[in-house]
Amino acid sequence: MRTYDFSPLYRSAIGFDRLAQLFDDALRADTQPSYPPYNIELVSEDKYRITMAVAGFDRSEIEIETERDTLKITGRKSREETPPNFLHRGIASRNFEHTFQLADHVRVVSAKLDNGLLNIELVREIPEALKPRKIAIDAAGDNVQALERKAA
Residue 89: which of 77, 97, 99 has the closest Cα? Predict the structure, then answer.
């Protein structure tokens, strides 16, 4: 496995240490499970959708949980007292757990199970205090005059 050195990213970027850490973790982590298959879609500039194929799972067997910057989707198949006698079993029904790292200010808006597809809608909402703002540049004499007016 090839290793990458992200230390230059730590030195030249301010506040992106978490992003570099995510890259490090992704390279070191075991392969992400491929079951059940899923898509991540960019719906619009700040809206995303995760679509996961969960055929055979009931709504009560799926749990979606967010904690800080992590979205966890868990499927636990309930065991039937008398399991069916399959002649061919092509639809997987094993338990699963998927974890997604969410960027700052991304939150889950809704989740819907329809025709075996679990759709999870996400949105990124940046607080007003963190949005870019213009800073006015005063002339040196303007600040002195403003202070004199306030004092009077």
Answer: 77
